[in-house]
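User: Can you help me understand a structure? I only have the sequence.
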Amino acid sequence: MNKKIDLFQFPFFSDISRERLSEIEGFSIVQSYDKGSIVFQSNEPARNLYGIIEGDVELNIIFKETIVTKDIKYEEYIRKHEETFERPIIIEEVKNKEIFGWSALVEPEKMTATATCTSDCEIILIPASKLKLLFSRDTETGYLLSSRLSVLIARRLNNRTKKLVDTWCNLFETLSISSLI
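Assistant: Let's start by predicting it. Here is the structure, written out as tokens:
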């Protein structure tokens, strides 16, 4: 079932002509996801730009921590034990009418986080290859959306840096310095 798509409701697409929005809507699809579903995983090939019509999505990365312990028995015998723990770090919570999956529009076209639905979701999938073709044909639209994309990337990078610094500070029990970044 192909649901009606209205990109005009997304701030990311504001000021784009109705003609261009209709073209983008024509090659996009709407997909439903249940709460807990993974939309994409980190390091997967990035093929679509995503927009939330309804619901919420968490973007997270997996922090891997390896703890090494050594047991020395006399001087000739050393036993080493490694244990790896994985902990997700939430980078961003994406809400209604917001865009995510920007990695599909920039090299190397690999997802930089895992996207997990925190509620039942309706998400628009916009094929990046078709969007890039539109950008090359209509440079004004391409420039406008690329400019907005750079703002989005900068915000997500800043959030990611703050979260990683906070996590690092918590691990080593130091004061949080993310407010300085």
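Now, to help you interpret it: Confidence is low (pLDDT under 50) at residues 176-180. The radius of gyration is 21 Å. Let me know which part you'd like to focus on.
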